[in-house]
Amino acid sequence: MVREIVRDTFFLRIKSEPATKEDLPAARDLLDTLVAHKDGCVGMAANMIGISKRIIAFDDNGKYSVMFNPEIIKCSGAFEAEEGCLSLDGTRKTKRFKSIKVSYFNEDFQQRIKTFTGFTAQIIQHEIDHCNGILI
User: Fold this and answer.
1) CA distances from 100 to 5, 52, 56, 61, 124 (A)
2) What pLDDT score does 24 carry?
3) Which of 17, 80, 107, 127 is catalytic?
4) Is the pTM of this model over 0.90?
5) Given Cys at both, which of 5, 63, 77, 130 links 45, Cβ 3.0 to 4.6 Å?
6) How many domains does the chain have?
7) How would you class 9 by CB atoms within 10 Å of its CB: exposed for 0-12, middle for 13-18, buried for 19 or more?
8) How many Cβ atoms from other residues are within 10 Å of residue 14's Cβ?
9) pLDDT in tens, 49-62
10) Quick check: is 2 in a domain?
């Protein structure tokens, strides 16, 4: 189900709770909402649709992916970026990394570790920040 985008910065600054298998329907709603906004959005965190759980969805080079409980375990190549967000007006500068290694659970709740680079890495960092209550 496509959900409304949350713009309440107080809610968005609350650190999200760990996700469980019971949160699979929330992940489906997150994907549906991301696809509905694909013209202006490449990633979303569950708190952006009012669900305070550590779930992110993003465009991974043309394929949508979901991560449960993602954590960056290694990063390199710091740079300054300028980003926008559906939950906020305008763009803001922020620090990102060119390469990140992420530990997460897939939709079958199997733990995975994967390295991401470039724009996909930037998207994931933005969404993990959302899970941590950090806004750009």
Assistant:
1) 27, 24, 16, 16, 9
2) 98
3) 127
4) yes
5) 130
6) 1
7) exposed
8) 12
9) 999 999 999 999 99
10) no
The pair of three-digit structure tokens given for residue 31, joined into one six-digit string = 């994907």
Domain for residue 83, yes or no?
yes
Range of the domain at 40: 9-131
Is residue 1 domain-resident? no
Residue 127 is a catalytic residue: yes
Closest CA to 52 of 24, 26, 16: 16
Question: Which pLDDT score, from 0 to 100, does residue 120 have?
Answer: 98
Predicted pLDDT of residue 41:
95
> How many H helices and E strands in the chain?
3, 5
Q: Give the CATH number for residue 43.
A: 3.90.45.10
Residue 113 lies in a domain: yes
DSSP string for residues in 84-104: E-TTSSSEEEEEEEEEEEEEE
- On whether the CB atoms of residues 126 and 5 are closer than 8 A, the answer is no
**65-114 per-position pLDDT tens digit:** 999 999 999 999 999 999 999 999 999 999 999 999 999 999 999 999 99
